[in-house]
Every structure is written in C-alpha cells, then in structure tokens.
TrEMBL record:
<dbReference type="InterPro" id="IPR006016">
    <property type="entry name" value="UspA"/>
</dbReference>
<dbReference type="InterPro" id="IPR006015">
    <property type="entry name" value="Universal_stress_UspA"/>
</dbReference>
<feature type="domain" description="UspA">
    <location>
        <begin position="10"/>
        <end position="143"/>
    </location>
</feature>
<feature type="domain" description="UspA">
    <location>
        <begin position="155"/>
        <end position="275"/>
    </location>
</feature>
<dbReference type="Pfam" id="PF00582">
    <property type="entry name" value="Usp"/>
</dbReference>
<comment type="similarity">
    <text>Belongs to the universal stress protein A family.</text>
</comment>
<dbReference type="InterPro" id="IPR014729">
    <property type="entry name" value="Rossmann-like_a/b/a_fold"/>
</dbReference>
<protein>
    <submittedName>
        <fullName>Nucleotide-binding universal stress UspA family protein</fullName>
    </submittedName>
</protein>
Amino acid sequence: MSSHLDVGPVAVGVDGSESVSRATAWAATRAYQRGVGLRLVHAFELPSRHHSEFAEDKRIRHLLRAQGDRWLAQAREVAVAAAPEVAVEVVGSDGSAAELLVRESATASLVVLGTRGLGGFTGLLIGSSAVTIAARGHCPMVVMCGEGEIPTAGPVVVGVDHKTSEAAVGFAFAEAVQRDTDLVAVHSGTGDRNGDAAGGGLAELLSGYERKYAEVRVTRAVVDDSPARALLEHAASAQLVVVGTRGRGGLRGLVLGSTSQHLLHCSPCPVAVVRADHA
C-alpha cells in the first residue's frame, strides 16, 4: 500500500525571499518528477507573541495577510514557470511557520525550505523551527543550501554510519532512481577500531537496496576524516546530499546532530534530512 511519502504533494515554505524562489522552482520540478502536486505554504505570523497589541490590531493583521498573499501569488508564478504541468495549491494560515509545516508534512511526501528566510520563515535553519520540523515532521525535509544555480548533475550522496536510519539510505536510492544518476555512500572511518563499517557493516546496510534498485550504480567511499568534512567534500560535485537524524529524542536539540547542522550551513547543494521513521 502506498503511503503519503510515495504519493503526497511536495510542500514548500514561502516567505517572499530570493532563497525561497529558488526552493519553489526546485520543488516544482521535483513534484513533476515524482508525479505529485505542489503546495505553497505561508504562515501569517505576528512579529512577536509577547506584543499582544499586534494580535489585537486588525489593520496589522490585514497587512500581514495581504503581504503573504502577494508572496504566495509570486511563488505560484515561479512554480508554473518551472513546471507548468504540476497542479499547484496555495495555503495561508495564521500562527507559527514551523507548526504549519509540521501539519503539512502529515500529508506531504517532502517539505522544502529556503536558507535565508523573511517574514514567517525567518531563522528556519538556525533557530528552533528547523529542529521542530526535523523532530516532529512526518516526511523528509530538503533545505536549499548553496547559492546560484542549483546543481542538476552529479550523484546523490548519502552519509552512512552504524547509526544511520535505513530510511535515509532508502530515500537516497529512490532519489538516485528518479534523477537517473549514481549514488555515493560516504562513511567516515574515523574512530572505527575494527573497520567493520568499511567492510561487512557498510556492505550489509547497502546490499538490500542495491538489489532493489539494481539500476543505480553505487560507489562506497570510506574515508578517514570527520563525517562533516567527508560529506562536504563529496557535496562539491553532488546534486543532493542525504543525512539521517537521531529521531524523536527527549532532547530536541539533539535531533539535528553536528554533522547535519554543519552541512545545512555549508553545503553547496541541497541537503535532505530524513528521520528514522520516515519509511
């Protein structure tokens, strides 16, 4: 039976920034390649919950809604230009941007974010919102890292270690198939005393997916370096980097580990964050 991760729309957070315009065009193209719809999402978020006068000022609320509607209309134009065949929906809602995207993720196959927010999506990467989506979102999240042209050539790169969820590996293989490209599985051997990940451990993790996705050419890269540096080196020639998360831990700040956070700040290409239960 297909889940929403297979057939759900691609949702993208919209705030009028140039970064989100890039994200919208990319998301529209991915929706077309996946054969699903696109949902453009904006939160009419008040400047601060501590300033109750804003909540009571109907004029300010009206201006925020009007601005959000303009941004959604602009994003729709970008999406239609990038993928005219894709059905596009727009969603505007009061409240928190992160909470809105978490709700959208319940029926989406993918949530896409820009890197430099305005309005309702300010600080999505550096602040608590990214952690909220990573910890509570119901589908994988892709962040449009890098600047300029979004790479459309090169392999899909996935970081692999003994804690990596199979969901991240499966997502990476599926993306490689949809993009008709190779996959590079990167394992940092730093700290491995017996080297089992370089041999049987890594091979065992990948073997089932290699059989399922026999058309994907796989390169196993075992390097003696930190995971962040190893993945950034491969990201230079990749079109997507995929990392797993630690799941629904009691400490939400640990959901995005140091490797993921470093990639989100420094990667030259989009980064997908996939939680263990996104399967």
